[in-house]
Amino acid sequence: MRMRRKKHGSERIAACASILIPLPEALLENPGSYFPTERPLHLEIGCGKGGFACGMSAKYPDVNFIAMERVADVACLALEKAMACADDRPDNLRFLIGDARGLTEMFPPKTFDCIYLNFSDPWPKSGYYKRRLTYRTFLEQYRILLKDGGCLRFKTDNTMLFEFSLEEFEAAGLTVEWKTDDLHNSPYAEGNVMTEYESNFTAQGMPIHAALVRF
User: Fold this and answer.
1) φ and ψ at residue 77, rounded to 5 degrees
2) Which of 150, 160, 166, 204 has the smallest set of CB atoms within 10 Å of its CB?
């Protein structure tokens, strides 16, 4: 369902400029320069309303996080959430409004230690499978952007997308270090930070699929 356009969205986004990486200025040799302290750098693709990004940045103060969202009206909510909780976390979170199809044009190779895909659009129509963020062309982008030994952390409620993704990981020659069809009742739940979607699904008793993939 399409989100209703936010009133004064542009002005609201501009008010959060201190934590927003503007395009095309994102094309930097050192994305870590957006942060006051250089730390390992992680990327969330499709950050939604920002709950996961805010939670991770507070939980892991020794990591810098870039949260990316394609839809400006959704990013507006994430930015405002991050600004509201700025006093409760270190200055280690930045946002970027952009499309994942252009990732390798935004960042140099071997930039990130970890990439997160949380509850990405499953694009269920068969003709749209190339739009899935775990399709092989996206995986090749992640391979370029991740440092040697970097990882992809993937969570979804969608069984079809999970099975498709596992097939794509195998086809790309990636190592699945672990996978589970019920994250919250698995040994891998320790330290998990939930997204807004995840909280809703869990409250309904829906299992969460997850995997850690090593590049």
Assistant:
1) -65, -40
2) 204
Between CA 154 and CA 120 the distance in angstroms is 9
**Which value, in Å, is the radius of gyration of the alpha carbons in the chain?**
17
CA triplet 208, 214, 215: central angle to 5 degrees? Answer: 135
The Cα 55–Cα 51 span in angstroms is 6
Tell me if residue 121 is catalytic: yes
Find the Cα–Cα–Cα–Cα dihedral 166, 171, 176, 182, rounded to 10°: 0
pLDDT in tens, 131-188: 999 999 999 999 999 999 999 999 999 999 999 999 999 999 999 999 999 999 999 9
Q: Is the pLDDT of residue 111 over 90?
A: yes
Name the class of domain 9-214.
Answer: alpha beta
Single out the catalytic residue among 121, 148, 157, 181: 121
Cα distance between residue 94 and residue 26, in whole Å: 11
Q: Is 118 helix (H, G, I), strand (E, B) or coil?
A: strand
> Domain-by-domain residue ranges, the chain?
9-214
Q: At 184, list the tokens.
A: 């919250």
**Across the strands, what pairs with 45?**
68, 117
